[in-house]
Amino acid sequence: MKGRRNWKSLGVILILLGILLFSSTMAAAAPQGTLKEAIHWGLSADWFDPATSSHVTSAFFILYFIHDALIKAMPNEPYAPSLAESWTVSPDSRAFEFHLRKGVKFHNGDLMTAEDVIFSFSRYKATAAKTFHDRLEKMEAVNPHGVRLTFKKPFPDFLEYLVPGASTLGWIVPKKYVEKVGEAEFKKRPVGCGPYKFVHFEAGRVLIGEAFEEYWRKVPSIKRMEFYIVPEPGTRLTMVKRGEADIATLMQDVFYESAKKDPALRLLSPLSPTIWLMNFTTQWDPKSPWADVRVRKAASLAIDRQTLADVHMPGCTGAGSIGIEGDPFMVKFPPDPYNPEAAKKLLAEAGYPNGFMGGRFYPYGGYWPYGEQVATYWKAVGITVETVLLDRPAFLAQRRAGKMKGGLFIESAIAPTIGGRLEFLLGPGSYGNYPDIQALWEQYNSAVEMDKRKNIIGQIQQMIHDKAMVLPLTTTNSPAAFGPRPKGNPYKIQPLNWFTSPFEDMELNK
Predict the structure, then answer these.
(1) Which of 246, 295, 395, 460 has the CA that lies 20 to 30 A from 46?
(2) What is the pLDDT of residue 78?
């Protein structure tokens, strides 16, 4: 009996030790600490709702933070299964069926089901809304964790619309919660199923979130994240130097050099798919100087792209193509050379030997010095523009609403494929198109065979290049100054993501 009691006692001790070990492991895995980041762009309340969010990187930064998508770009995987574990596509590219991950929770405790996915698709009204809703035939829940979308005609590019840079169509919200609080309140108190729960947002100042410990992918390492909106680069740099922030984004020119010389800081740059483009909205007005292709080509030759990149995007180069390397449908063109004398000659041939007034010019929000340098290059050959500076949310809102018609603006091409990028330029959000390009674009969207699609989209890119319809300027990065607390390189090298993420993978040094 005594031996049995000893074994029983030993068993109890082992169980208690196991509980203690398990508890200590769980405690060690619990999120800890606060990370503070000084960012250079403003945030819009519309971006907290995927249905009204912008497709641009500054907006899907919020989506990765609070929400989650059916598929999304993750490190080394542009089309990573997320809320959808897998999917199938019919041979005619009309039917897409998504098999949803089970057990996914929203921040309010609701479980995600096919009902939430259909609801999220139905209420989508942002960048690609017209394209999606016009083509959709029906949506149905094949079971609680299966959704099938059927389109009226082949839609071979549909999956591309689900990843960041093309649209925010594939990001899922909780149906019951949205219907309960209403759309306006949802933007004030968003609930998602991403790695961080919404805590506080003050426009023009700060966004705060706390770790969601039931996030399906993993428990975030950092308990609290605070993003401070600080437009002035000198202030951002001072904050990270003083330890008031752990990361200061967009270090350029003298601030880049200052951060580079500070032994307490690290300069890191994300890999960006962005290519800056110049858009001429008045080229379809026959009375405008910009209607003459020689004028647009002159404007291109007047820009020293490499110097522009060296000053504002250290490590980047001039761009000649709209698409990115690795896209099999992208046609690569060399950047136009810097040749101001040839630019002046073209302007004279077009009837403007003394230059002309080029109208309103909108540099991209937050990258005003970049745009102002372009305006300076133009001024040197006789093209004078009225520069209008808008912060990021205002710029994107006006661009989307068509209020920049009659002006010039720099914007970013960020969709993962050339098809997605051309949809942005030629689709419903376009500021204009040429009939011959439009006809080819419609052919491309109706074609299913890969060889045929590649041939057509190659022709379109050649025509856009020949007409100088838009001007590719430079590739892009955003060097940031990092203090000692962030561990490793929070910029995960991936082709479609441009900020510190995935947020659940970020860590602080002990």
Answers:
(1) 246
(2) 80
Look-up: residue for tokens 């007034």?
A: 357
In this prediction the pTM is 0.83
**Per-residue pLDDT at 17:** 47
Of the chain, the end-to-end C-alpha distance in Å amounts to 50
State the angle between helix axes of 435-446 and 418-426 in degrees (0 to 180), rounded to the nearest 10. 130
Q: Please, which residues have CB within 8 angstroms of residue 446's CB and are 6 or more apart in sequence?
A: 153, 154
The rounded distance, in Å, linking the Cα atoms of 161 and 177 is 25
Domain at 34-216+482-505: CATH architecture: Alpha-Beta Complex (3.90)
**Token pair in block for residue 271:** 């890999």
- Going from N- to C-terminal start, the domains of the chain cover 34-216+482-505, 275-475
Q: What is the DSSP string of 77-100?
A: EEEEESSEEEEEE-TTS-EEEEEE
Query: Do 106 and 174 contact (CB within 8 A), yes or no?
Result: yes
If you write DSSP's letter for every residue of 13-36 in order, what string do you get? Answer: HHHHHHHHHHHHHHHHHS-EEEEE
User: Going by C-beta distance under 8 Å and a sequence separation of 6 or more, which residues neighbour residue 204?
Assistant: 42, 229
Contact 131, 428 (CB under 8 A): yes
pLDDT at 77 exceeding the cut of 90: no
Q: What is the spatial distance between Cα 34 and Cα 243, in angstroms, rounded to a whole number?
A: 12
What is the spatial distance between Cα 250 and Cα 262, in angstroms, rounded to a whole number? Answer: 16
For 392, the 3-state DSSP assignment is helix
- Pairing between strand 356-362 and 383-387? parallel
Q: Which fold has domain 275-475?
A: Dipeptide-binding Protein; domain 3 (3.10.105)
Q: pLDDT of 147-157, one tens digit each? A: 999 999 999 98
Three-state SS at 180: helix
The torsion angle over the Cα atoms of residues 344, 350, 352 and 353, rounded to 10 degrees, is 50
Phi (first) and psi of residue 374, to 5 degrees? -60, -45
- DSSP code at position 320: -
Distance CA 422, CA 408 (A): 18
Exposure string over 198-220, b if 16+ CB within 10 A, otherwise e: beebeeeebbbbbbbeebbbeeb
Amino acid code (one letter) for 29: A
